[in-house]
Design goal:
single chain; 335 residues; mainly alpha; Rossmann fold; Tyrosyl-Transfer RNA Synthetase; 2 domains; 3-stranded parallel β-sheet; two-stranded parallel ribbon; globular; binds adenosine-5'-diphosphate; binds tryptophan
Amino acid sequence: MKTVLSGMRATSRLHLGNYFGAAANWLRMQEEYNCYFFVADLHALTTDHDPSALNHHAKTIFAHYLGLGLNPEKCTLYIQSDVPEIAELYLVLNMFANKGELEKTASFKEKARKKGQSLNAGLLTYPVLMAADILIHRADFVPVGKDQEQHLEMTRTFGNRFNHVYKTDLFPEPQAFAYSESLVKIFALDGSGQKMSKSDHNTNNTIFLTDSDDEIRKKLKKAKTDKGPQEKNSPFTQEIKGLFELMTGVSSPETLQAFMADYANCAIRYGDFKAQLATDVIDFIAPKREEILSWQSDEVRMKRIAQLGADKARESARKTLNAMRDVMGMHYFKD
Ligand code: ADP
Ligand code: TRP
């Protein structure tokens, strides 16, 4: 059976982009594959150093996984730092990553632009830690959103270099995975063309899975539109493309078709369009929100699941490290 791995950083809360870009695929994949899903708390350390925030966010993201329907009986759910084997593999993989290529990574360049002076080595080697997350279980498929494609490419590069140097086929080439034709990107509500993100300083641009009905309605009311199509069959502007993308996820095909036809005929009224979208987003999110909040208040159950998940993940991780040490000549003395 193929192995699947994915994770999200322990920051903030999850939003519709995380759902459609990643979690929706995870839910289906747990039915067919050997799946590992984890909370990337060590990755959060590349930018945040507030202990109580980290603690809160890691538990919050874990509660989202469970609330959305990831089932610990079908997949392995854990917190990254509970599996120290990942850190060992990260150290070794660092020997196969070049400074130049790390500096050229899009996510690093973007952080460098935003954060100015305080660029630590952990931020530079973020893709190496991500490669360790994936290669530790020798994963075949990695369900992620479009923004992670480059990191996956780097994972393949590091694994291949290791394989080449040690003349082994220890690490497979993990592939990005989505059930849809292409990887999904959900846009921020300001029409800027940026992805919807947890770290957007303007929370009005992001619809979180725990937003109240009121917040959702307000955010969609404020969502940027344009002055409307002037000619029949005009292409979507960025603003409208983003909203239709959301509607594709949450509304019925009939509703979507009707508004698309209105747009094509220049008959669309954005007020109605956004009101319908708000209703459908609320119907979509409300049951998920209740489940997430209920898990969030049950730390005893979460603790048990996290412990079990860490045990299972460590067992798999140790197998990989054993094989790795073998090919590297790091088993020094016979029993
Ligand atoms: P964020 O960028 O909001 O902090 P993460 O980087 O933790 O979110 O992403 C977690 C997962 O969700 C990744 O697989 C990522 O590709 C996916 N993802 C995040 N934002 C979006 C989006 N707007 N559209 C599609 N997928 C997304
Ligand atoms: N870098 C990913 C993100 O920002 C999170 C992540 C860390 C991840 N390790 C991973 C995703 C391993 C998939 C596989 O979303």
